[in-house]
Amino acid sequence: MFQPFAEETSLTLTSSHQHPSFEGSFLPNQLVENPDGFEASWKVIAMNKNYSDYTMGASFVNPVDPYRQYHRAVSYSLVIILVVFAAFLLVEFLTKKNFSNLQYCVICASIVMFYALLLAFHHLMIFWLAYLLAAAMNVITLTCYSRAILRNRIAYLLGALLTLIYTYTYIMLLMYSYALLTGTLLLFTVLCVIMFITAAPGLPHKESEAIKEDIDAAQESEQTTEKPEKAAEK
């Protein structure tokens, strides 16, 4: 931090750090940022002021420090929840079995518990190890839960999808400039997969199934009414 004591103060600050945070009463008049760092320039003119109240300068920010990573993980929680629910919907489509509303509430609670575990482990160990333990516990729990519901080995496919989701999310947390882009691309990819699967030819529709059920019920009622008539004729 610097204080402009002169009648006209010119300051140029050059650093190889790529993520500055400018502080004080004056922002730089010129700022040049590049992959090699940044260069900021101030020019302040004295105008009958109390110099002790005016400062200018910059602090060096680490955008991927553990606490910022946890905050960003919570910020991207909506992305994780949407992708995890999309994975469960995909499993529903493949197995032709539906999860109940209560079961979806339990799944949502498990996802929220992941962040509680991450915060608890983060106070005891480094971030990547805390993330690994919390994600592993969450994936194993959801895989066993879906295996007990579906009674099908496709639940292990769900476990693989969850592992891929949490791995992709961790890579996204390590990024800074492209984190939003990677998260958006992930959601777009999931949407394209769902559109491709649901638009497959031969996919049964609820309306056609309902019509078929009505036709079958009408035929059964006709058969039941024809039997007494034939018996009376005899």
Any key phrases for this structure?
234 residues, alpha+beta, 7 helices, 2 domains, elongated
Largest sheet: 3 strands, antiparallel
Helix content: 55-70%
Give the number of helices.
7
Choose one word for the global shape: elongated
Mean pLDDT figure: 76
Number of strands: 5
Kindly report the spatial arrangement of strands forming the biggest sheet: 1-4-3
| End-to-end distance | 109 Å
Oligomer description: single chain
Compressed to H and E, one letter per element, the order equals EEEEEHHHHHHH
Low-confidence runs (pLDDT<50, min 5 residues)? 203-208
* Radius of gyration, taken over Cα atoms and rounded to an integer in Å: 30 Å
